[in-house]
Design brief:
single chain; disordered N terminus; alpha/beta; globular; eight-stranded antiparallel β-sheet
Length: about 800
C-alpha cells in the first residue's frame, strides 16, 4: 500500500550479535509473523538494552521478555531466546519495571548468557512490532551488529485519501458450494484464514443471512456451514478479486478434508442414544474418573497496558509449545495456533481488558462467547470444536496464572479413563503406556482428541452419556470400541471372552514382531529389504528391536540443530560409530547434512530466502561450504566400518550435484588410507532427479526417494503452508509416475531403488511402490513389523498390475481405493 510516512522512530540494536530477519527465527509463531513484523538478533553479550526511547509496558515475573511503547505509540515485544519462559526466571534479572521511562541504550534485562544458552531452545531474540497501523523498515540483515547500531525504523502509516478510495471501490463476490464432507469446521476454517494471509482485502463469508470475518476461525465456525451449503465470498480492497479466488479455490478443492479423513479414525459420523466409536479396539481395565476443575481468575485487571502485554505473552507461550508438535498432533496444533491468533477472539478479549478486566477473565469471556456461538448453530459436528476452545482457554489461563502442566491424573497400568470430555492437551500429557482406553460422556468421533487416540492406538468411546460419570473408580470395565459398548463390572464369562479376544490381537502383533526379525520376502520369493529411518542412537536401538534390516536414512542434521556451534569431527565420528555399533553390522545409509533456510542454525549465517525450500539447502549448501562437507565425510568414514557404510546426498537435481562430492569422497578416503570403496547414492527429492534417474544411476551407487519433498515439488504445494498443505499426497498419480521413472532408471543401470520418505511407512502403499520397481523400504521403527507382514503376503504380478492402474488413476483417493481392493 502506498502511503505517507510520519512519526518515524529509529531502532538500535538492543545488544551486540548477529542481525537476522524475523523469518530466520526457528519458531513459526515469530517466523510467520503471527505476532507481527520484526527482526531478530542472536546475542553475544548478556544485557538487553532499550532499542529506542519509550515507556515500559510490562516485564513478566520470569523476566525473559519486555514490552515497550515507543514515543510514536508503536508497541514492541523483545523476547530473549526461545521457550525461555520455561526457565522460570532462572538466569534473568529485570532492570526496569512497568511504567518506567527509558532512553535508547538503557539496560532492560541482564541475563546469564551461558546458562540461558544451555537450557533454552535457542538464544536468538525476536524483536516484534506488536501494533497495527505502523510500518517497519529493516536495514540489511545477515551481519554482526554492535549494541546501539541502527537496525530498523518504525513509522506510522497514513494512507493517502486516493488509496482509501481505491481500496473501498474494489469489491468482488463469488458463490461456491462447500463439498467437504464435514463442512467448515476447525481445520478447514484455519486453512481459509491461512490462505488469506498474503492479501490485504477485507473478506467475509456469507451463509444465508449470517456473515463472518473470513480471517477468523471462530467467526467461521459460528456460521455452521455444512456439506452442500452454498456460501458467498465477499471482499473489499485492492486485491479483493485475488483474495476471493484464493478462498474459492480452497473450498472447491475440498478444504483438505479428503486427506484428513484418511488420518482420522474409521468411525461413523452419526449420533446415537449410546456410545460412539472414536478409535477402534478393545480394552480391559479399571475405571478412573477425570474431574477437570477450572482455575479461579481475578475479574479486575492491573491496567489495560499490563493486561494486554500479559495476554500477548501467554498466547505466545502456548503457541510456542504448539509449534513443537509432531505426527498426528501437528495439524491439530496448526488449527489451535490459528485460534490463538483469531481476530474475533482477540477483539473480544481486548474489549474486556479495556473495560478493566484481567487478561485471564477477558480470555475466558472471549472463548465462552465463541463457544456459545458455535453451540447456537445446532450442528453436532461443529460443537465438537468447543472442546478446542475450552482447551486453549485453560492453557492460556494456566500460562497467565503461572500454572505448570495439564491437569491430568497419574495413571496405573490398565487404566480406563472416563470423563465429561478429554482435551487434546490433556491427552498429550497422559502416560499412554498405562492408558488402556478412554470413554467420554460428551465429545464426538471426529474431535481432535479422537484423532490423537486413534493415532496412538488407544480405544475410545465418545458421546456415552452422563451415566458413565457415575462409574465408581477402580471398578473393572470392558471397553469395546468396535462394538460401541462399555460394560461395567462384567461377569466372569464376559471377562473371559474379552480377554480371549484381546489375547488374540496381542498374539497377532507379537507374531508380527517376532517374524519381523527374519529377512523379508514376498509370497513369490522376491526379496524386499525393510530398513528404518533414524535420527539418534535411541532410534537405532528401537529399529533393531523392531526387526529393521538396516538403516535407510540417518538424518545427520540432528547433530547440528538447536546449538550455538557446529559439532566437531570427533563428536560426529563418535555418534556415527555408536549408531553403527547399535545396528550390529547392518547397512547404515548416512545422509549428509540437510539444512538450509528452512532449518537455520545460528553459527552458519545465510541470507534471508523468499522460498527456502527452493534455496541453498541440502547438497547445494554442502557444495557452497566444502569445508563442512569434508569434515562430515571424514567423520562418517572414521566412524562407520567401510563394509557397513553407505553415504547419501540430499536435494540432488542432476549429476552436476553428484560428481563434485564423489571426487571429494575419493580424496577423503585417500587421506584416511581407506582402500575399500564406500557406496555413494542420491536422494531423489526433485522432479529433475526423478526424470534423470537413469542417467544419475549410471554413476551413483543407489537411488532412494524422499517422497515428502518430491511430492511438494511435484504438486507445487509447500508442506509447511497450511493454506495449500492439504493438496500434498504422496499417492498422487503424478508422484507415482515419477517414482516409476526412478524404478525404470535404476533397473536399467543395474542399481537398486528405495523409498525413505513417509510413504514407505504406509502398508497400503507397499504393493504400489514394489510394483513400480522399489526393492527397499525405509520406514519408522514402529511400522516395521506390520509392514513386513503385509509385504510377505504380496505377489509381484499383483503389485505390477496394481502399480500401473494407480499411475493411470485420476486422484489419490482412487489410488487408495485400488490398493485397498487389491490387499483384500
Amino acid at each position: 500500500m502506498s502511503g505517507m510516512i510520519a512519526d518515524a522512530v529509529t531502532l538500535v540494536a538492543p545488544f551486540a550479535g548477529w542481525l537476522a530477519p524475523i523469518e530466520a527465527v526457528p519458531d513459526a509463531v515469530f517466523a510467520e509473523r503471527m505476532m507481527g513484523d520484526g527482526f531478530a538478533i542472536d546475542p553475544v553479550e548478556s544485557v538487553l538494552r532499550a532499542p529506542a526511547a519509550g515507556e515500559i509496558l510490562s516485564v513478566p515475573a520470569t523476566a525473559h521478555a519486555v514490552t515497550l511503547r515507543l514515543d510514536n505509540g508503536a508497541e514492541l515485544l523483545l523476547h530473549i531466546g526461545l521457550e525461555t519462559v520455561a526457565l522460570g526466571g532462572k538466569g534473568f534479572t529485570a532492570k526496569v519495571a512497568a511504567g518506567q521511562r527509558v532512553n535508547p541504550g538503557d539496560p532492560l534485562i541482564a541475563f546469564d548468557l551461558d546458562a540461558v544458552a544451555q537450557n533454552a531452545r535457542a538464544l536468538i531474540t525476536p524483536v516484534v512490532l506488536a501494533s497495527e497501523g505502523y510500518l517497519l523498515t529493516l536495514e540489511a540483515t545477515g551481519r554482526l551488529v554492535e549494541a546501539g547500531a541502527s537496525v530498523a525504523r518504525i513509522a506510522r502509516a497514513q494512507p493517502r485519501e486516493a488509496d482509501r478510495a481505491a481500496a473501498a471501490e474494489e469489491r468482488f463476490e463469488r458463490e461456491v458450494t462447500v463439498a467437504a464432507a464435514h463442512g467448515i469446521h476447525a481445520r478447514p476454517a484455519a486453512r481459509i484464514a491461512a490462505a488469506l494471509r498474503p492479501f490485504v482485502a477485507e473478506v467475509e463469508l456469507v451463509a444465508g443471512d449470517d456473515r463472518a470475518n473470513a480471517r477468523s476461525t471462530v467467526a467461521l465456525l459460528g456460521l455452521g456451514v455444512t456439506s452442500g451449503s452454498i456460501v458467498r465470498i465477499a471482499a473489499a480492497g485492492t486485491d479483493a478479486r485475488a483474495a476471493v479466488d484464493a478462498v474459492a479455490d480452497l473450498i472447491l478443492s475440498g478444504l483438505g478434508e479428503d486427506e484428513a479423513a484418511t488420518a482420522a479414525p474409521a468411525a461413523p459420523v452419526v449420533r446415537t442414544s449410546g456410545p460412539v466409536c472414536a478409535s477402534p479396539g478393545l480394552a480391559i481395565g479399571q475405571a478412573l474418573q477425570l474431574k477437570a476443575v477450572d482455575q479461579e481468575v481475578p475479574e479486575d485487571g492491573a491496567g489495560a497496558a499490563a493486561e494486554r502485554a500479559a495476554l500477548d505473552s501467554a498466547l505466545a507461550e502456548v503457541a510456542g509449545r504448539l509449534a513443537g508438535t509432531r505426527g498426528a498432533a501437528a495439524e491439530i496444533a496448526e488449527a489451535h495456533r490459528a485460534l490463538l491468533a483469531d481476530p474475533e477472539l482477540l477483539r473480544v478479549a481486548n474489549d474486556r481488558i479495556a473495560a478493566g478486566r484481567s487478561a485471564a477473565f477477558a480470555w475466558r469471556a472471549a472463548t465462552a462467547q465463541a463457544s456459545d456461538a458455535i453451540r447456537a448453530t445446532g450442528d453436532a459436528l461443529l460443537m465438537e470444536r468447543v472442546a478446542d476452545l475450552v482447551d486453549l482457554e485453560r492453557q492460556v489461563v494456566a500460562a497467565l496464572l503461572g500454572s505448570v502442566g495439564a491437569s491430568v491424573p497419574a495413571l496405573r497400568p490398565g487404566t480406563i479413563l472416563i470423563g465429561e470430555d478429554l482435551l487434546p492437551s490433556q491427552f498429550l500429557a497422559l502416560d499412554t503406556a498405562n492408558l488402556a482406553g478412554i470413554c467420554t460422556a460428551a465429545g464426538g468421533p471426529t474431535s481432535h482428541v479422537a484423532i490423537l487416540a486413534a493415532s496412538a492406538g488407544i480405544p475410545m468411546l465418545v458421546a456415552a452419556g452422563e451415566g458413565v460419570l457415575s462409574i465408581a473408580e477402580g471398578i473393572p470395565v470392558i471397553l469395546d470400541a468396535d462394538a460401541a459398548a462399555i460394560t461395567v463390572d462384567p461377569s466372569p464369562d464376559a471377562l473371559s471372552e474379552a480377554s480371549e479376544r484381546l489375547f488374540e490381537t496381542r498374539e497377532r502383533r507379537a507374531r508380527e514382531a517376532a517374524e519381523a526379525h527374519a529377512p523379508c520376502h514376498m509370497a513369490d520369493g522376491t526379496r524386499i529389504e525393510i530398513f528404518a529411518n533414524l535420527g539418534s542412537v535411541a532410534d537405532a536401538a528401537a529399529a533393531v528391536a523392531a526387526g529393521a534390516e538396516g538403516c535407510g536414512l540417518l538424518r545427520t542434521e540432528f547433530l547440528f540443530l538447536d546449538r550455538d556451534t557446529a559439532p566437531d569431527e570427533e563428536e560426529q565420528r563418535e555418534t556415527c560409530s555408536r549408531i553403527a555399533a547399535t545396528l550390529g553390522g547392518r547397512p547404515l545409509i548416512v545422509r549428509t547434512l540437510d539444512i538450509g533456510g528452512d532449518k537455520p542454525v545460528p553459527y552458519l549465517p545465510m541470507g534471508a530466502e523468499e522460498n527456502p525450500a527452493l534455496g541453498l539447502r541440502g547438497v547445494r549448501l554442502s557444495l557452497a561450504r566444502p569445508d563442512l562437507m569434508r569434515l562430515q565425510l571424514r567423520a562418517i568414514l572414521r566412524g562407520v566400518p567401510a563394509g557397513q557404510c553407505r553415504i547419501m546426498l540430499p536435494m540432488v537435481a542432476d549429476l552436476g550435484d553428484y560428481r563434485p562430492v564423489a571426487a571429494l569422497l575419493d580424496e577423503v578416503r585417500a587421506e584416511l588410507g581407506i582402500a575399500e570403496r564406500v557406496p555413494l547414492g542420491v536422494m531423489i527429492e526433485t522432479p529433475a532427479a526423478a526424470m534423470l534417474a537413469g542417467q544419475i544411476a549410471r554413476e551413483a551407487d543407489f537411488l532412494s526417494i524422499g517422497t515428502n519433498d518430491l511430492t511438494q515439488y511435484t504438486l507445487a504445494a509447500d508442506r509447511g503452508n497450511a493454506a495449500v498443505s492439504q493438496r500434498i499426497d504422496a499417492l498422487h498419480p503424478a508422484v507415482l509416475r515419477l517414482i516409476r521413472e526412478v524404478g525404470k532408471g535404476a533397473r536399467a543401470a543395474g542399481r537398486w531403488a528405495g523409498v525413505c520418505g513417509g510413504l514407505a511407512s504406509d502398508p497400503l502403499a507397499a504393493p504400489i511402490l514394489i510394483g513400480l520397481g522399489i526393492t527397499e523400504l525405509s520406514a519408522t521403527p514402529a511400522a516395521i513389523p506390520g509392514l513386513k507382514a503385509v509385504v510377505r503376503g504380496l505377489d509381484m504380478n499383483l503389485c505390477t498390475a496394481l502399480a500401473e492402474r494407480a499411475c493411470d488413476a485420476a486422484s489419490p483417493a482412487e489410488v487408495r481405493a485400488l490398493a485397498r481392493e487389491a490387499l483384500q
